Amino acid sequence: MQVTITVNGVEHSRDIEPRMLLVHFIRDELLLRGTHWGCDTSNCGACTLWVDNEPVKSCTMLAVMADGKAIRTVEGLANGAELDPIQKGFMECHGLQCGFCTPGMMMTCRALLDGNPHPTEAEIREGISGNICRCTGYKNIVAAVQWAAENPATSEVTA
Amino acid sequence: MQTPAPFDYAKATSVADALALLDKHGEEARVIAGGHSLLPMMKLRLARPDALIDLNDIAELRGIRIEGNEIVVGAMVRHAEILSSAILAEHYPIFREAEHMIADPIVRNRGTVGGSMCQADPAADLSAVGSALKGTAVIQGAAGTRTVALRDFHEGPYETKVQAGEILTQVRYPIRPGAGSAYEKVERRAGDWAVASSGVFVVVSGGVVTDCGIGLTAVGADHYCAPAAEEFLIGKAPTEENLAAAAKIAGDSCNPVADQRGPADYKAHLAYELTLRALRRAARSSQGA
Ligand SMILES: Cc1cc2nc3c(=O)[nH]c(=O)nc-3n(C[C@H](O)[C@H](O)[C@H](O)COP(=O)(O)OP(=O)(O)OC[C@H]3O[C@@H](n4cnc5c(N)ncnc54)[C@H](O)[C@@H]3O)c2cc1C
Ligand code: FES
Ligand code: FES
Fold this sequence. Notes:
The complex is a heterodimer. Chain A is α+β, with helices and mostly antiparallel strands. Chain A has helices at residues 22-29, 85-92, 102-115, 121-127, 139-150; strands at 2-7, 10-15, 48-51, 54-57, 70-72. Chain B has three domains: 8-54, Uridine Diphospho-n-acetylenolpyruvylglucosamine Reductase, domain 2; 61-174, Uridine Diphospho-n-acetylenolpyruvylglucosamine Reductase, domain 3, CATH 3.30.465; 179-286, Enolase-like, domain 1, CATH 3.30.390.50. Chain B has twelve helices and 13 strands.
């Protein structure tokens, strides 16, 4: 089936099987491997990307369902060489260790801040409750989001 | 890697179009809403439809609005929209309280009311809410439209009154001036399905309970409700003693099964305790406290 999907501002047309999951379309057809693929059961959130500005677990959406839609992945967070504040927050606050959860986590956190620029700690923790991190214990991820909230458009990373 | 078996796919543009597509693709076709129950089942081959009819682009299945003395929720309304709806928050806080504990914020961006009701999972939270509020389901097929009380909608686990060739289009909840409502859930960890949940509404007038509804999920309650407990409470003062007696009837009417979420007696105890907590809060809020 023919689909046209815009990913990080670039239109891609492909002929795919209806059963192809969006996460495999992104990783294996477009070779955008920033979006991770973990549990495959919509629990871990590693595959989180945006469909029309909303975070979605892409292991549980068919690529054909994204036909005509705009996708944003972790590769689309930075503005050229300029990292997004959430990416800087993860650097500044040591918000990752192995990095497996990080792309999905950052996509969730960016959306959280877009909807609520000054979330409380409880709101951050609820906001990331669909993204599992096995390394950090979440403390530094919360700190990274708080850093990004306080530095919405800084241009320098000191870390 | 888990991938569903092959199937045909078509995007419906209207309810009429969806019904025509269902007819064209035959008995083994299924509609897909958020896909957050159906796709996992297809990956595991627990479901193997020949064709999927996608409801996501059907505008007439969207939206939450008031019609007469009912709140009308379209089948394709997402959990996230229920959580943020001002209309639902004003009339029935039970929705917000339940939604905060359904899955996680990302899953809530996709999962829908219609999918949740039609999946008929024995632990579905919105099924308990719908039974508590005594809502109605609107079902449309080639032969026309019919309504079914939500308390009759579920035939059993994973089975509903929606027949092949039909779709659920709306869920409607009666507005009850002065009603208080509340939802209580115990889960093992954030985002998990319920160990047990109870949701209620109560109307207190002239010092007595004049109307109430009790919904339960994950505890084997018939049609996700406890009518004997409601009957007991109506006409009585909302005292701690009466609320506890009603909660006891509700707890005793359940038939939970032991699983990885806990033993049966623990779940039965939760059915009682959570019903009592929800009744207390709903009665208090109906009395303006
Ligand atoms: C990780 C995770 C955690 C979850 N936790 C909870 C929880 O705590 N509590 C809870 O209640 N739920 C929970 N859910 C379920 C979730 O709430 C969704 O509601 C559920 O997945 C079904 O909605 P859907 O739109 O995704 O339906 P789909 O998966 O698209 O469909 C489910 C079934 O309903 C049928 N269907 C869908 N729409 C219609 C319609 N309009 N007419 C006729 N048939 C229809 C489909 O054919 C299919 O058989 C969880 C899900 C996940 C993935
Ligand atoms: S891979 Fe999609 S949620 Fe885990
Ligand atoms: S950094 Fe390793 S899983 Fe989060």
